[in-house]
Amino acid sequence: LLVAVNQMDGVGWAQERYAQIERELTPILRGAGYRGVRFVPLSALAGVNLVPGERPAALEWYGGGALVEELDRFEPASRQSLVGTRLCVADVFSSPALGGVAVSGTLQAGSLRLGQKLLLPSQEVVSVKALHSRGAAVTEVTAGDHVEAGLVGVPEASGLDAGSVLSDPHQPARLARRIEVMLHALQPPAPLTRGQPFEMYVHSGSCRATLRKIICGLDKHNQRTDGRPRFLPAGSGAVIQLELERPMSVELHAQCRSMGRLVLREAGQTLAAGAVTAILL
Predict the structure, then answer these.
(1) Where does the pLDDT of residue 155 fall: very low under 50, low under 70, confident under 90, or very high at 90 and above?
(2) Which of 58, 90, 109, 185 could bond 86 through an S-S bridge, CB–CB 3.0 to 4.6 Å?
(3) CA-wise closest residue to 88 among 141, 161, 139
(4) Percent of the chain whose pLDDT exceeds 70
(5) Between the CA of residue 172 and those of 12, 109, 117, 253, what are the distances in Å?
(6) Is the whole-model pTM more than 0.90?
(7) Extended beta strands in the chain, E state
(8) Is the dihedral of CA 183, 266, 281, 227 positive or negative?
(9) Interval 163-187 mean pLDDT
(10) 185 to each of 21, 55, 256, 276, how far by Cα in Å?
(11) pLDDT tens digit string along 84-136?
(12) pLDDT at 41 over 70
């Protein structure tokens, strides 16, 4: 993970403030599952340290690269999964150029090509009539690509909307109502407790969810402990059960990481992050 520390010019490029942000954020981000975390100071408005170039004298203490240089250091993300095609829908719209009903979203697993069959959450099978990616027409996309796809055969009452997942008819996506999650509390204003409601965000969808059960605690190595905590304070981890207000397409984190990660929010604040370890119902 790369953290851009913006508006550093507003504090005179103070190394002390940068170090404070790095010191406070690093354990939170590592607790959320990021093993490698790097920081880069910059001023987006002034265009300083976005790309290689001259830096102000007050930034001499920083020995890393500019934002673009640090981004270029990343290796391509692994998109391996044990599930079939998974297209997570961010938007549904009408497009004459794409043949009528179209969706946009990220292909989180598998591949997608012209003419391929896809299964809607309502169990109808549709066909891909057109594909656009990166502003151009293509014949095939692979996991990680953002895509616009024109679909043929979508019924009027399909219920297709943002948050839907289109999948391989031979390896259909599962709809879950109750899931087991390996959860890490970040910095909630109060400890997380049984019966507490949240807004759960997973891939391109969201729904209300309730913490139904705390199964066991987690140690600093994410190993299950014998005790069952009564509540989860900031920085703690546990295996819990979440009850979802409506069915949602999710996958086990071990089988498809991008569809097995979730965050819990409430009142505009991120309270916890976790990984799906079991689909119970």
Answers:
(1) confident
(2) 109
(3) 161
(4) 98
(5) 54, 12, 12, 16
(6) no
(7) 2-5, 38-41, 86-95, 100-109, 111-113, 117-119, 125-133, 136-137, 140-142, 146-152, 165-167, 175-185, 192-193, 197-202, 205-217, 231-232, 237-249, 261-266, 269-279
(8) positive
(9) 93
(10) 19, 38, 22, 15
(11) 899 999 999 988 888 889 999 999 999 999 999 999 988 999 999 999 999 89
(12) yes
Contact 181, 151 (CB under 8 A): no
Q: How far apart are CA 249 and CA 247, in angstroms?
A: 7
CA neighbours closer than 13 Å in the CB half-sphere of residue 94: 1
- In three-state secondary structure terms, 189 is coil
Tokens standing for residue 116: 């391929």
Phi, psi of 59 (to 5 degrees): -105, 15
User: What is the pLDDT averaged over residues 225-242?
Assistant: 92
For residue 47, the model assigns a pLDDT of 94
Give the Cα separation of 189 and 233 in Å (integer). Answer: 9
Residue entry with tokens 């507490």: 196
Instruction: Kindly give, in sequence order, each residue whose CB lies less than 8 Å from that of residue 93, ignoring residues fewer than 6 positions away.
Output: 102, 103, 104
Q: Is 198 helix (H, G, I), strand (E, B) or coil?
A: strand
